[in-house]
Write a structure and sequence with these properties.
Arc Repressor Mutant, subunit A, alpha+beta, 12 helices
Length: 285
Amino acid sequence: MLELRVLGQFEVRMDGEPIAIPSRPAQSLLAYLAITAGTAHRRERLAGLLWPDAEEDSARGSLRQGLWRIRKALEKTLPAGTQYVLADDLTIAFNPGSAYWLDASVLEGRPDGVGSVETLKESIAVYRGELLPGFFDDWTLRERERLEGVFDRRMGALLDCLIDQRQWPAVLEWAERWIAVGHVARSCWPTLNAETEHGSQVCTSGVESCCSRSSARSRLSRRVSSSSGCLAANVCSRRPASRRRTQPLRARPTKTGSRHQASRRSRVCSSSTKLMPSASLGGRP
């Protein structure tokens, strides 16, 4: 089975083995055909879509070369008669009846608002980031925005279901996933601020940081400074009292003090001598 991932990165596998398609235009062509599987696209339209700045003849030649690269990579190990890309003199299409898996199709598997919680989780889990990062074709930008909207609506529906079921750990887990992709809309803040039954709230500082990076950095620096101060105070409060005292500088003993200390040492030594047992205690009388 052909496994094609276009969300978060471009990746192609055949029966679990990675397949290299080194040409970026060929990658864009394959992704476009797979996302629109079953639609027959006219060759001149595809050439103008993927190579808009090239002359018509040059764009058609680039299209033929990209199609050759795709077929060479995908169909060299397939049985005779098996094709993923259907092409004739006028049109090119991705074969919808072939054995393939596409993450974008899984994301769009069911209409919005339809399906159980588990179905929503399965469709959302394939979203690892924006469509074809690093690609800036016109079709990619439009489709990227559309799929982000699909993901946001599915995630919002999932969080609504989890909140209704009061599954607070799951709410936090999936809200953090939403934040991690980096394009959470402000409209989701009320959802993420849902209170738990223990009175705690899902933190939305990460959501705000996704929408305003510069203000987030300033808030983070203030929080770090404040946290550092609190941490230092807490550490000091936990130290033993003897360690927190400042030790005074030792003054030089005066001559009177020296004679007093010497006298004290002599008394201690004499007392120790008196307390020492005699050698006869260990032997016979």
